[in-house]
Amino acid sequence: VGLNRSNSEAVGLEKSYDVYLRGEGGSRVVRKVSGNLYLPVDGLDEILPHKGSDVITTINPGIQEVAELALSEALHKHQAEGGCAIVMEVETGAIKAIANLQRNPEGTFTEVYNYAVAHSTEPGSTFKLAALLALVDGAGVDTSAAVDLMGGACNFYGHAMKDSRIHGRGMSDLADAFALSSNVGISRLTVQHFGQDPARYIAYLRKLGLGDKTGIDLDGEPAPVIKDPQRDKKNWYGTTLPWMSVGYEVKLTPLQLLTLYNVVASGGKRVSPHLVSAIDNGRDVTTLPHRCKSDSLIAPGAREKVLGLLKAVVERGTASNIQTDAYAIAGKT
Description:
It is a single chain. The protein is α+β, with helices and mostly antiparallel strands. Helix content is 32%, strand content 17%. The strands form six sheets. The protein has a three-stranded antiparallel beta sheet with strand order 3-13-14, with no helix packed on it. Strands 4-5-6 form a three-stranded antiparallel beta sheet, sandwiched between helices. Helix 5 (128-138) packs parallel to helix 7 and helix 5 runs antiparallel to helix 11 (300-316). The protein is elongated. The two termini are 42 Å apart.
């Protein structure tokens, strides 16, 4: 349905909340008396116009400015083609900042595409959190479980799985494999515990909500791509499970990945992100409730172990360059 406001954009909040924003036009009967002079006809019904409602967003202007500046600096530093930054409130899912920038032919960056909501891609190592949760919470594997990192390279069905570099490390454990983002360690443990029944691994991912859209109140969110050994038999191979465990052969948007991380941050609850907090029609303000699954998706003990490893990534792993004494940071890659 096309928007009927001359100053409207058929994207983003403009499109998603057009029913509130558009208002209602008025009408009255008039009589032409001369030239361009019209006079109302008394005694006939007149319909007064009503302006559209105000949509109150969750965006914090200060946080938004910082997010845009930080994203711009990172894109310039790494000579990237584009990227996004999202800041979401853990408990409510309120989006406090959402920045999207793309490189122009001139070499500058502008916002022309909503990567955060609409861009679905293979998430790579950031998806290892899902594998870690499946191992620790789904299969009861302890973070001290032994695994041979095999120097940084191994084979699955004749296909090489490699770490970011050949490091020469041998026997290690799940905690170190995750902190160092070892593809070999994570994939070998996943195959060890789910290789005989990969459907159990997929069932756990779906329990976390990884097969569902986030439900963000914007149009254009694609569904995640999570393969299933029973429904996708033609596209399920011996290499699928190990490659999925390290973030390949799956597709997610940045917002869908953030929603996964927020499950850990929120204590195990899946919270739907949202950009609008209330509707103000000029007479009263209607607050929109946030959606949250009340039951915890992760056992408390498992959640604490996983959170500890996310902190270890920053304290002694691949993200140690952002460690600070000011506060604790949990993250990945």
